[in-house]
Each structure stands twice: as structure tokens, then as C-alpha cells.
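Re: that chain you flagged

S.,

Sorry for the slow reply, it's been a week of failed gels. I finally had a moment to sit down with the sequence you sent. For the record, here it is as I used it:
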Amino acid sequence: MASIRLCTVDDILAMQHCNLLCLPENYQLKYYLYHALTWPQLSYIAEDDKGKVVGYVLAKMDEDAPVDEPQGHITSLAVKRTHRRLGLAQKLMDQAASSMVEVFSAKYCSLHVRVSNRAALGLYRDVLKFEIYETEAKYYADGEDAFAMKRSLAKFAKQPKDKETLKETTDQADSDGADTKAAAKDTTDS
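Prediction finished late last night. Pasting the C-alpha cells below so you have them in one place:
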């Protein structure tokens, strides 16, 4: 069993270790620190019952996105082999996406994936509903191309309630409040 929580600066070494075990793209510690300090609400870790990091998502906001259309970006996602196929990658990604919307009102989230990484492509396209919008030639240091992918975050936005639902909720709260006051009066009168 593993749990998901917001990453802290104290998790950076464990995240980097997970990255080194899982991915060919590796980052210096200062890059993790930059994310943690600049967008502390967006990166998450998965940890096992013993508190060991078994996965992470390193996320940020796209500083080049139009002001009227904020966009998040997934810098890196990794789950150790021992904890794959448990839904952790999806949970990490959804948590980051939800935070992008809640904190920054993001409309989209983007990422890059190696064209040869069929497992990741399946997760992003089929499970998380990312769409390929471009192929970037020689994106990676070893010369491999990347698919640039994008996902709408509309499903993570809180839906405004219609007037009737708001009225019912308010009426119910008023009724509950009156019942509570009456019950409190009954017990104090005794």
C-alpha cells in the first residue's frame, strides 16, 4: 500500500533517487529545489508504509502560457517498478492536475514523452486523456524525438451549482440549524 502526499524540500533527495532508478532523463538537485520553492503546491510523492518514496510527480506552471489560459506542465513522473500497476502514476498526475486548477486556475496541462515509451504513452493517452499536439524532433539529449502532449483540466474545476441547488442547500442548512437550536433549547430547559 502507498499513500500520496505533497512533496517537501526534505523529499528532494529521495525523489532524485527514484528518478535515477526509473528514468533516462535525470536532473540536478537544484532543479528539484527550483520546483519545490517556486511551485510548492504542485509536486507530490507516493510513499510506502515505511515512509520510503516509491514515486513522484514533479510539476510546474508554464511561464510562457498566455495569461488568460494558465497551463501546468509535468516535468517528470516516475514510479518504482515494485509499485507499478497500482494506479499510483494516475493518482500522482490527477493530484498535481487538481492543484494546478485549484491554486493557479490552470486550463491545461502539458508534458513530453519519448516516442518509444509505449507504456507511458498508453498511460497518458488512454488513461489520463492527454492528446498529442506536436512531435518535437531530437527533444532528448540522446537525440530521440518527443511527443508534446496536452490535457484539458476542465474536469478538475469545481462546477458552480445552479440556483435551485444552491436554494435547496441553503434551505436544508437553515432547517438543520433550526433543528439544532431547538434541540439545544430543549436540553437547556430541562
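What I noticed first: The radius of gyration is 22 Å.

Talk soon,
D.
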